[in-house]
Structure prediction request, 182 residues.
Amino acid sequence: MAKVFEEIDESLAAFIGAQAMYFVATAPNEGHVNVSPKGLDSFRILGPSRVAYLDLGGSGIETLAHVKENGRICLMFCAFSGAARILRLHGTARAVEPHEADFPALRARFPDFPKCRAILDVVVTRIADSCGWGVPLYELKGQRDQLVRYGAQLDEAKWAEVRRAKNAESIDGLPGLDVARL
Prediction:
Protein backbone atom coordinates (compact mmCIF):
# COMPACT_ATOMS: atom_id res chain seq x y z
CA MET A 1 0.00 0.00 0.00
CA ALA A 2 1.35 3.40 -0.97
CA LYS A 3 2.21 5.85 1.76
CA VAL A 4 2.85 9.60 1.75
CA PHE A 5 5.52 10.89 4.13
CA GLU A 6 5.90 14.30 5.77
CA GLU A 7 9.68 14.39 5.46
CA ILE A 8 12.79 12.38 4.66
CA ASP A 9 13.40 10.59 7.94
CA GLU A 10 16.22 8.21 8.88
CA SER A 11 14.41 5.20 7.42
CA LEU A 12 13.83 6.88 4.06
CA ALA A 13 17.38 8.24 4.06
CA ALA A 14 18.69 4.69 4.61
CA PHE A 15 16.59 3.38 1.72
CA ILE A 16 17.78 6.18 -0.58
CA GLY A 17 21.39 5.62 0.47
CA ALA A 18 21.18 1.93 -0.33
CA GLN A 19 20.22 2.53 -3.98
CA ALA A 20 23.03 2.58 -6.54
CA MET A 21 20.84 4.23 -9.15
CA TYR A 22 17.99 6.72 -9.29
CA PHE A 23 15.95 8.41 -11.99
CA VAL A 24 15.20 12.09 -12.57
CA ALA A 25 12.08 13.13 -14.51
CA THR A 26 11.26 16.61 -15.79
CA ALA A 27 9.04 18.12 -18.48
CA PRO A 28 8.85 21.50 -20.15
CA ASN A 29 5.59 23.40 -20.32
CA GLU A 30 5.37 22.19 -23.92
CA GLY A 31 7.61 19.58 -25.48
CA HIS A 32 9.30 16.33 -24.60
CA VAL A 33 9.24 14.68 -21.19
CA ASN A 34 12.70 13.58 -20.04
CA VAL A 35 13.81 10.79 -17.71
CA SER A 36 17.50 10.44 -16.86
CA PRO A 37 19.15 7.60 -14.94
CA LYS A 38 21.77 8.69 -12.41
CA GLY A 39 24.44 6.82 -10.50
CA LEU A 40 27.85 7.31 -8.94
CA ASP A 41 27.97 9.09 -5.59
CA SER A 42 26.00 12.04 -6.94
CA PHE A 43 23.02 12.41 -4.56
CA ARG A 44 22.77 14.12 -1.18
CA ILE A 45 20.03 14.65 1.36
CA LEU A 46 20.43 18.22 2.61
CA GLY A 47 17.52 18.25 5.05
CA PRO A 48 14.13 16.68 5.77
CA SER A 49 12.65 18.31 2.66
CA ARG A 50 15.70 19.25 0.60
CA VAL A 51 17.97 17.15 -1.62
CA ALA A 52 20.54 17.83 -4.32
CA TYR A 53 22.44 15.98 -6.99
CA LEU A 54 25.45 16.66 -9.16
CA ASP A 55 24.90 17.18 -12.86
CA LEU A 56 28.17 15.72 -14.09
CA GLY A 57 27.44 16.25 -17.76
CA GLY A 58 26.03 14.32 -20.63
CA SER A 59 25.04 14.53 -24.25
CA GLY A 60 22.02 16.75 -23.60
CA ILE A 61 20.75 19.41 -21.22
CA GLU A 62 17.07 18.50 -20.89
CA THR A 63 16.77 18.31 -17.09
CA LEU A 64 18.52 21.61 -16.47
CA ALA A 65 16.57 23.39 -19.24
CA HIS A 66 13.23 22.10 -17.92
CA VAL A 67 14.11 23.12 -14.37
CA LYS A 68 15.06 26.61 -15.54
CA GLU A 69 11.69 26.90 -17.28
CA ASN A 70 9.34 25.62 -14.57
CA GLY A 71 11.24 23.96 -11.72
CA ARG A 72 9.15 20.76 -11.71
CA ILE A 73 11.06 17.58 -10.92
CA CYS A 74 10.54 14.04 -9.67
CA LEU A 75 13.31 11.77 -8.40
CA MET A 76 12.58 8.05 -8.23
CA PHE A 77 14.46 5.37 -6.30
CA CYS A 78 13.71 1.68 -6.96
CA ALA A 79 14.77 -1.30 -4.88
CA PHE A 80 16.49 -3.66 -7.31
CA SER A 81 17.38 -6.01 -4.45
CA GLY A 82 15.74 -6.86 -1.13
CA ALA A 83 12.15 -5.92 -0.41
CA ALA A 84 10.22 -4.39 -3.33
CA ARG A 85 9.78 -0.63 -3.05
CA ILE A 86 9.68 2.56 -5.12
CA LEU A 87 10.14 5.98 -3.56
CA ARG A 88 9.35 9.22 -5.37
CA LEU A 89 10.46 12.69 -4.32
CA HIS A 90 8.42 15.38 -6.09
CA GLY A 91 9.51 18.96 -5.82
CA THR A 92 10.76 22.20 -7.20
CA ALA A 93 14.35 22.40 -8.34
CA ARG A 94 16.78 25.10 -9.24
CA ALA A 95 19.93 24.64 -11.26
CA VAL A 96 22.98 26.05 -9.51
CA GLU A 97 25.79 26.66 -12.01
CA PRO A 98 29.49 27.05 -11.10
CA HIS A 99 29.44 30.86 -11.50
CA GLU A 100 26.72 31.27 -8.82
CA ALA A 101 27.62 32.33 -5.28
CA ASP A 102 26.16 29.28 -3.50
CA PHE A 103 27.77 26.72 -5.85
CA PRO A 104 31.01 26.21 -3.82
CA ALA A 105 29.17 25.43 -0.56
CA LEU A 106 26.86 22.95 -2.28
CA ARG A 107 29.71 21.42 -4.31
CA ALA A 108 31.69 20.77 -1.10
CA ARG A 109 29.02 18.25 -0.01
CA PHE A 110 29.93 15.86 -2.85
CA PRO A 111 32.99 13.86 -3.92
CA ASP A 112 35.57 15.72 -5.95
CA PHE A 113 34.61 14.52 -9.42
CA PRO A 114 36.81 16.20 -12.06
CA LYS A 115 33.95 18.02 -13.82
CA CYS A 116 30.49 19.20 -12.79
CA ARG A 117 28.32 21.42 -14.94
CA ALA A 118 25.65 22.18 -12.29
CA ILE A 119 23.99 21.06 -9.08
CA LEU A 120 20.26 20.52 -8.98
CA ASP A 121 18.96 21.73 -5.62
CA VAL A 122 15.47 20.41 -4.87
CA VAL A 123 12.87 21.49 -2.34
CA VAL A 124 10.83 18.33 -1.84
CA THR A 125 7.08 18.96 -1.69
CA ARG A 126 5.76 15.38 -1.80
CA ILE A 127 7.34 12.10 -0.68
CA ALA A 128 5.53 8.87 -1.52
CA ASP A 129 6.35 5.23 -1.90
CA SER A 130 4.65 2.42 -3.77
CA CYS A 131 4.95 -1.34 -3.86
CA GLY A 132 7.54 -1.83 -6.60
CA TRP A 133 6.35 -5.37 -7.20
CA GLY A 134 6.94 -5.01 -10.94
CA VAL A 135 10.57 -3.93 -10.55
CA PRO A 136 12.91 -6.81 -11.39
CA LEU A 137 15.68 -8.02 -9.11
CA TYR A 138 19.16 -7.06 -10.28
CA GLU A 139 22.62 -7.68 -8.94
CA LEU A 140 24.92 -4.65 -9.00
CA LYS A 141 28.28 -5.33 -10.60
CA GLY A 142 29.57 -1.81 -10.01
CA GLN A 143 29.38 1.76 -11.23
CA ARG A 144 30.53 2.70 -14.72
CA ASP A 145 33.47 5.10 -14.72
CA GLN A 146 33.37 6.43 -18.30
CA LEU A 147 31.71 9.75 -17.36
CA VAL A 148 34.31 10.48 -14.70
CA ARG A 149 37.20 9.41 -16.95
CA TYR A 150 35.83 11.54 -19.80
CA GLY A 151 35.65 14.61 -17.57
CA ALA A 152 39.11 14.01 -16.17
CA GLN A 153 40.76 14.05 -19.59
CA LEU A 154 39.26 17.42 -20.61
CA ASP A 155 41.17 20.60 -19.89
CA GLU A 156 39.07 23.67 -19.02
CA ALA A 157 39.08 25.02 -22.60
CA LYS A 158 37.85 21.73 -24.07
CA TRP A 159 35.26 21.35 -21.24
CA ALA A 160 33.89 24.82 -22.05
CA GLU A 161 33.82 23.98 -25.77
CA VAL A 162 31.84 20.77 -25.15
CA ARG A 163 29.32 22.58 -22.94
CA ARG A 164 28.88 25.38 -25.50
CA ALA A 165 28.35 22.86 -28.30
CA LYS A 166 26.07 20.39 -26.52
CA ASN A 167 24.48 22.20 -23.58
CA ALA A 168 23.31 25.60 -24.86
CA GLU A 169 19.72 24.47 -25.44
CA SER A 170 17.40 21.51 -25.03
CA ILE A 171 15.92 19.45 -27.84
CA ASP A 172 12.84 21.68 -27.59
CA GLY A 173 14.92 24.87 -27.93
CA LEU A 174 14.85 25.89 -24.25
CA PRO A 175 17.92 27.65 -22.81
CA GLY A 176 20.38 25.30 -21.14
CA LEU A 177 23.65 26.34 -19.57
CA ASP A 178 24.57 30.00 -19.49
CA VAL A 179 27.13 29.50 -22.26
CA ALA A 180 28.03 33.19 -22.30
CA ARG A 181 29.83 32.57 -19.00
CA LEU A 182 31.89 29.66 -20.33
Notes: Strands lie at 3-5, 22-26, 34-38, 43-47, 50-55, 72-78, 86-96, 118-130. The chain has a mean pLDDT of 95. The chain has one domain: 3-132+141-174.
